[in-house]
Fold this sequence. Notes:
By secondary structure, the chain is mostly helical. It has helices spanning 6-20, 27-52, 65-86, 91-94, 99-104, 109-147, 155-175, 179-198. It is built from 8 helices and no strands. Helix 2 packs across helix 6. InterPro entries: Rce1/LyrA-like_dom.
Amino acid sequence: MIDQENVPLQEDEQNCMEASSQPRFSQKWLLWNLFLTQVMIGTVAVGLLWMQGRLHWQLFGWGDVSAWLLGVGVGLCIVVVDWALSRFVLPSWVDDGGINQALFHNLPIPVIAVIAFGVAVAEELLFRGALQHWLGVVGTSILFTMIHFRYWRYWGLIIMLFVISSVLGWMVEWSGSLAPAIAAHFTIDFIFGVLIRKGWK
């Protein structure tokens, strides 16, 4: 027998959950915020690399095809693992509050590709390029996880971020260039962006 007194409460709880997952900012605001943030990150990265005397094209490993392919392969594996985990963990562990949906939901795929590439280059220049030189893989991964403060409430996302950052860092250590990290970062962000755009994530 259904307890009628609990029905309004359940509906209120459902409404609260739905409201909490609604984005608080417009897509235009999110895009501008993303653009300015990445410009700042890229500028700081270039400055730090220049101070370290490590600002050179070889850092990117443009000609190392195997490193780029490794990055793409690792990125694809991370996407598959993330998809599998999302089917078995509580939604509250991996819900980002709807921000990614608000950002990508109706963007053209070429724009998603540009965003994913820009974010990958800027963040990898700073974290795996400049900061990892000083902090090592673990220290950089902790910092990388901490700056994604909007994920702090979601344990699943925090753990995934730390693991992904560590994997990217180890690939850079192994290859001696940012190529695999940029390739993996781009692959992850681009595929997730397209999945959100298509309504599949």
